[in-house]
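BUG: 3D viewer hangs when loading the predicted structure for this chain

Environment: internal workstation, default settings.
Expected: structure renders.
Actual: progress bar stalls at 90%.

Input used:
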Amino acid sequence: MKVEQGKTVYVDYTLTVDGQIADQSQPGQPLQYICGMGMLLPKFEEAVMGKEPGESVSFTLEPKDGYGETVAEAIVDLPKTIFMIDGKVAEDILFVGSQIPMSTAEGQHMMGVVKEVKEETVVMDFNHPMAGKTLNFSVTVADVRDTTPEDLSKIMGGGCGCGDCGGSCGDHECGDGCDCGGCN
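Structure tokens produced before the viewer hung:
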């Protein structure tokens, strides 16, 4: 069976960035995805499309086809006071390279990386860690099969997505016909 839209695909891969292995699947634990669901970079899926189990492909993605260029506006100076917990600045998490989950005023969640700690501020980088990087992939298709409802449920989180029903209400749009009682 070939990799095509809607199929469940298993791949073994190695990602090399700047001559170093940045990520790779573990032996016997291939990466699983449903082709065309937007789970992976579009150009990654495109490079694997049409391959069969056992076939390999190596390809390079420039930043524009990977995680984009580094955006200067995504590197910001934030006051240390926003890192307060129980009235004290959480100095233990404020070190170069520390990844800190944060939220915008609108409630959008994002991961920031500490670039510099100053006397009164912290320089945070909200670019994707692979932004501006050229990605070199080596991929072998391990398996391709038809997608099952269970595969879709795992990917969609099951149920309505509210977490209260454990995926048993069978609805994937929170509040839209959900009968678990946790959405409305």
